[in-house]
Amino acid sequence: MRKFSTFLIALCFLGCKKEANSVITDNRSEKFSNSLTNASHLSLASSATINVKNYGAKGDGVTDDTDAIEAAMAAAKKAGIPAVYFPDGSYMIGQAGDGGGIIKLVDGVGLTGTGPATCHIKLTGGRNNPSPMFCQDYVNTPIVSNVTIQGIDFNGNSSLQTFDSDYQYCTAFNFHNGKNIEVKNCKFQSFRGDGLFFGDTFEPSLNLRMVTNIDVHDCEFFNIYREAAMFCAVNDATFYNNNVHGDGYLVGGVDIERHSVNETVLNVSVYSNTFNFRDGYGPVERGGPKVRYRRAVTMGFFYNGYKNGIADSLSGHYKVYNNKIYQGQIDCWGMLNVSISGNNFKNSYENIAGVSFLTAPAINISDNVTTRGLINVSADNNIIDSDIGNGIAFKNYSKVTANGNTIIGTPLDGISVLSTSGCFYGNKITDAGTAANPCSGILINGNASGLYVSTNQASNTTTGSNRTMDYVIKIGSANNGTVAPQILSNKGKNMIKGILSEYYYQAGYVITSNNVAM
């Protein structure tokens, strides 16, 4: 056992604790900030509206109301009126549109209905690869700003359409450039694409198009093929108090995705939502068996990744917190400066072997291309009750924290740490592994300098041969990091083999103290 500096250990612990506390402070500040933002958005919607029926719309579920809706939006723009009003009814969109979409969005003109239970806008059936319902015209309307959409059910009628196997672009709304967009109290259902798409992809020059100041809240998303909402080329967006469920979600409930180095994707918060995938299945295009388990929230830089493999400042500062997730996970792939906190997972066993676009951990923080500079991701105070994979997995990150998580019944190790450095403390892990394949509370592999693992607790609630956990902490491979790990004051109850297992080729390498049985 090596001697260690009490001062350094205390300093590291306080640093981790300070970072966790800063997340809580930021979230409280964000709630206050959001209340101000929402108030300013609400001021955009004046009591003055233009009634779509005054421009020929029938809302009878039969008549093609496309021209009437476009005429009402044009009239509202001309008169400086901020919204078109839709009385109770079913307004059919019968035109085919073009590659961009059917109805072109109008700068400064929103849509207001009586509520999604009584006000519907639907695509007619019988289409092949239908265009988006509402879209932004790059050429004639390069900016769409100051728009509120509220109180309407948008229905893509996907069961009445036909699609090529790879088609996934029929969205309800595409916003590509502008600011101050609020979507509230709406329902989005049956789109072979996204419910809402914000930003743009594969820009030829830096920040050519962006959407800023977005709020999506108090909406329902049902049977959406790709994502409820996709945020790419955005800065400052919130997605909260929404209900995401049903079939579909090829990529995830919410996708925060950067596509190229010329895009900025910053400051997105996803909180207080319910992602309930128990009432539907993922698309068959995933391959493998058909499963309910899907991504609730995914954050990633896919495709070619960062220039020269070095993370830059144009993606990150995301907060994903206080969500309820059933049969789902949170993924963070190659993003930095991310807080994942206070989420509650409940996942029952499914065999996901061979299913594309899925990983097993409830929270997966990974980089598969060894990008340099991926830092400051925290997974704190989550409750994970999952029969699928690890509770939390880290790969190729530094300066991370996992603090105060409660992890129950995972078939693999509660927390898996691969080539990742940071602070892991105060976690409670129960019944990880299986009797046939015992696992540990925290499994550490690969090179990582300065790991700090302290005050974690692990316990078996079963006895004898039914126990599933072998160690509280297990080091499974050599670590050639500059600074040896510190493993301090961890406790275990009813472990099969013990509290700590060091890697047998590096006995005595780890700094240890006060790791004891409870």
From TrEMBL:
SUPFAM superfamilies in UniProt: Pectin lyase-like
Protein name, per record: Rhamnogalacturonase A/B/Epimerase-like pectate lyase domain-containing protein
Pfam families in the record: Pect-lyase_RHGA_epim
Residues in Rhamnogalacturonase A/B/Epimerase-like pectate lyase domain copies: 50-246
Protein species of origin: Mucilaginibacter celer
